[in-house]
Design goal:
17 strands; alpha/beta; globular; Immunoglobulin-like; 8-stranded mixed beta sheet; about 280 residues; Rossmann fold
């Protein structure tokens, strides 16, 4: 498992009975987590010191209950700064477990000893974009949500990357990729973090099980002759590490290199265990 254990501004304090207790900077949040199927004693005092609690509804969705939480605040990861705010369906605008991949991306780019162009698809609020740009890459950041791209720009500004070579694109990721192929553009690296289900700006339906393999095939056409890396993230139960590995081998073996896939996770302070948070597949030259 790849573990994001280098945080100072974030920690999973404890988790029990379908919920995880987290510290985001100086604020304590309680959010649901479907992976937490165990019921263990809640000995940590901070279970009773929360600043906000997201309650799931039996009918689907849910809502935030706020006690003492600002509308927006920031956390830092090494040289990066991210703006957080509670919004729909329990999220804060950041997936801290992805720091394990940010470190890997940073190392690959810094050690490349060549200019690196990165395509980041389904780029959300730009954690990977900021990491890649801070390491020296030119990044094309693509997301179908204008609001998410605006938020990503805020994170880049907070991280001192206002002048970094980042191209901000609001578009359907599949259609953008198809246009880039027609334009003959090439990239040294691709990052994709596709949702399980979503809609594009014009109502285009995205269902990961039906679309991800064809998107991998499309993205392979954008790679340069000697690609640096390819990263695929999944939070969908059916797309386990072995599935990611199989797909990536099928599409990328022609380049040589190495493909690894594993779970990503976060350490839990209360007991030293690791909370699984999804899976990633990594190709590297």
């Amino acid at each position: 498992m790849w573990i994001a254990d280098q945080w100072s501004d974030f920690e999973v304090i404890d988790c029990s009975k379908g919920e995880k207790l987290e510290r985001w900077g100086e604020y304590i949040l309680l959010r649901p987590d479907p992976q937490v199927i165990w019921n263990t004693p809640k000995k940590e005092k901070k279970w009773n010191q929360i600043n906000a609690h997201y309650h799931r509804s039996a009918k689907g969705g849910g809502e935030w209950e706020f006690f003492d939480l600002p509308k927006q605040w920031s956390v830092c990861y090494k040289n990066l700064t991210f703006q957080l705010k509670p919004f729909s369906f329990k999220h804060t605008g950041l997936f801290p477990e992805q720091a394990a991949n940010w470190d890997w991306i940073t190392e690959k780019i810094k050690n490349a000893r060549r200019p690196v162009k990165v395509l980041n698809l389904f780029a959300y609020t730009g954690g990977a974009t900021a990491a890649a740009a801070a390491a020296g890459a030119a990044v094309t950041h693509v997301d179908a949500s204008k609001g998410m791209v605006t938020w990503a720009k805020e994170n880049a500004l907070s991280s001192g990357l206002s002048d970094a070579p980042i191209r901000w694109i609001v578009d359907d990721c599949v259609k953008f990729t198809e246009r880039e192929i027609r334009r003959g553009n090439k990239y040294d690296a691709v990052i994709m973090d596709p949702p399980s289900y979503g809609r594009g700006p014009k109502g285009e339906i995205w269902k990961i099980e039906d679309m991800i393999f064809s998107l991998l095939i499309l993205c392979e056409k954008l790679l340069c002759k000697k690609p640096l890396f390819f990263l695929v993230n999944s939070y969908t139960t059916g797309l386990q590490p072995a599935v990611l590995s199989y797909m990536m081998h099928t599409v990328l073996d022609k380049y040589g290199g190495r493909i690894l896939a594993d779970e990503i996770g976060l350490p839990v302070s209360a007991n030293g265990l690791v909370l699984p948070c999804g899976a990633s597949g990594r190709y590297e030259c």
